[in-house]
Each structure stands twice: as structure tokens, then as C-alpha cells.
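ARCHIVE CARD
Drawer: 12
Card no.: 0347
Subject: one protein chain, sequence and derived structure
Cross-reference: see card 0346
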Amino acid sequence: MTEVIVIGGGVIGLSIARELSKSGIETIVLEKNDRAGDVTSSRNSGVIHAGIYYPEDYLKTKLCIEGNTLIYKYAEEKKINHKKYGKYIIATEKSEEANLDKILKQGKKNNIFIDRANPEKVYENNPGLTFYKALYSPNSGVIDVPEYVTALEGDIQHYGGLISLRTSFLGAKNNKNGFLVDCESDDLFSLDCKYLINCSGLSNEQTLKNIKNFPRNKIYRNYFAKGHYFKYSGKAPFSNLIYPVSGNHSLGIHVGFDLAGGMRFGPDVEFVNKIDYKFNESLKEKFIKSISRYWPELNPDKLHPDYTGIRPKITKPNESMRDFSIETEKQHGIKNLINLQGIESPGLTSSLAIGKYVKSLI
């Protein structure tokens, strides 16, 4: 018997478990892989977002803005490698100016510090960059995700929580204590818990089908949005994150960094039917064409395949952005079950704030 079982040991599950354990609530995390944070959490840009792009009344906006402050503070306290690079959002031609204005307006509505950039300052810090107009967001940065995962794990254990690796969730049904949860590690076993929290990311649909009496119309379909990242082997000429004006499902093929100062480009977005991290090297031409619009001096020979990631979207390919879905009995009718779906970008930035929010629901 335990008080809470969290399904999924990505940064969202770990942040929730950390917050609950810290509050003295006995918590067990079930993670089917060999390591925590080894799937969506570690296959992204590692960018700390400011909360510019999302509608002001979205939960996503509130949690991203709160999470931005919390994650920088946590990184300082835990000495996690991170850097506040600041971000330029650029329009490469006049036809994109209206989109840029829209982003500025939304950022102001969200009470984010964002402003029109001084072109001289942009060129000074990012020689070779070509653009028509730009916005500047000072609170965007990058964090070392594996170090962040390790810190969260350490906290959970310190506060008496447990992370059970190589442990698959098989199913759950209501009982007198709350839930009976069937699991598989080396053997089959069951656990009783009062609260069940689902944040199984890419596996969400299957997880929910295995929770008895969970309403089928509350299972949002997971659309797998695959993104590729290319690394650049030459010296990085840029000092800031560079984001072209965003599209529907992506913030464009942007300039990011690893914490050693290496430069990478990505992600693109391609909807796929199955989880597959194979790298499609034929996309290089598409990347060259996109990057050359804002960096004509790009040397294609220095662009190399890096890695891929898959985002668990609940938004259809032709649909505009949807909010994070964090639902309780009020929405799905099952007591003591908290269900998280569609926690994609800015999930990493929002993770500590999501932990606090879920604790408040309990």
C-alpha cells in the first residue's frame, strides 16, 4: 500500500513525485525503461521557454511562466548546468512581419518581458545572421536535461519516495483503498494506492485503456510529431537562441546550443504513425534551405545528423494549438485519478510548476 502511484518517470512524473514526496506524501514512480527521463524528456532542445506564444488564458501559459522562474532557481540551487542565452525571434522578410507583431502582442498579453530588438545589437552578438525584423526575449535559456533528471531523482529518494525502474504499468481498477495497480518487473505484482497519476506521455492512450471504466471519449489520441536535430561542427557564430517566426506545430528550425557551446538546428516536424527514432538523413536539404534563409553563410558540409525526438501531441496535424490537459474526477468521473495528456513543449520548462499544480489538486 502506498499513497500515490505516478505512471511515467519523465520530467513531468518526476517533478510531481518530488513535490508530493517533499510534502510527506508516500509516492512511487513506475518507469518502464532502464532510466528515468530517457524518452521525450531527453530528446528535445533542452530549452527553457519564457511563455510567449500561448493564449493568455491557457494553463500552459500560466505553468510555463511560473515554471521558468522555478527551473532557473532550482538549477542554481542544485548546480545544474544551464545558461540564460536570451532569444531572438526573427522575421526573415517583410511578409512575416504581421506574424512577428502577433507574437509581440501575445507576449505582452502574457506579461512576458519581450520587445522589439535593436538590429545593431542582434548583429553584434550574432554575426552572419540575416533578418528583416526581430523580437528579443531575455528569459529564454538552456538546461542540461540529464543533470536535471538526476537532481529530481535525488530529491525524490531524499524525501522518501521511490522510483521503480524497468517496471511496466499493466492496469488499474478501483478498490476500497482507491486503486489496485497491476505491474510487471521481473515478476508480476500488484500495489494498492489511494491516488493514481497518469503522465505516461507517448504511451498515454494504452495506459488509459488499461484503467478500468476510464471513459473512452476522454482518451485523447496521441499524434506523434517527430523532430530531427542536426549539429554543426564549426565554431558557433551566434551567442543567442535564434527562432524563426513559428508555424502551427513547431517553433521553426531554430538555432539551439548544448551546454558545451556546440550549435544545433531543429526540430522540424513530421507526423508519424509509430514511435521510431531512426534518423532520416535525406532531410538535410530541407534543413539547409530553411537555415540559409537566416544564415546564408551556412557551410552544409559542417551540418551532421544528431538525434530525433517525438512529441506526444493531442493536436491533429491540421489543428491549431491545444492546451495542456490535466483532468480530475470533475472531467472524467474517476475519483482520485489525475490524468495528464498532451504535455509537450513547454513541458520541460513547466515541469516544476506542474508538480505544484498536481499537488494542489490532491
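Annotation on reverse: The chain has a mean pLDDT of 95. The chain has two domains: 2-49+146-220+322-361, 87-138+223-313.
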